[in-house]
Give the backbone structure.
Amino acid sequence: MRHFVRNLTLLMFVLLSKEMFAQNERFPTITKQEMANFLNSFYQSDSFIKKLRFINVAQRPTWITDLPQFEIIDSVFTELDISFFKFQLQHFQSCTFNSSYIAAANFMDEKDFNRIFSVRAVDAVNAWDVFHKKYGLGYTLISWPVFSKDKMSCVLFVEYTSNRSESTGALKIYKKENSSWKLFKEKYMWGNSK
């Protein structure tokens, strides 16, 4: 009987380990080069973003937890893609953008951003005066981009802010065509389109 219990326990451990391994094996790895290729295409294709300071820290893609409100996602991605989005959120690690990710971006350090706006009190007029004097027009924040399982589509959230009354936030979907990323769909969550 002891051998039976021991063997059963061992079998359960092997099966659970295989299931956990299969879950990770089921999803591809996104390399830094793939991420850099996407981010450079994104940056080059958005003429407005080039006028703004790019906050250098990727925002956690928390919009993934609100997927039911984004019918735009359901119309483009499969359940497996959505599972892969959630997998990427679970494994998100803070990342600082630099020229190895986006070669031509005009970066602003997030620490300076937080210092100026003191926990994002963006309605404070004097904070905007300080910002405009030091950095110019405005800033852009983006979430960490998440990829579809086949790596042919990518989704990210983008915020453009020029002053306390001009801010736009959009969920953007890009598709890879002939090794270049093209904007496929976007949904503005607040503000006006650029």
The first helix runs from residue 2 to 26. DSSP finds six helices and seven strands in the chain. Confidence is low (pLDDT under 50) at residues 3-24. Helices lie at 2-26, 32-45, 71-74, 79-90, 110-117, 125-135.
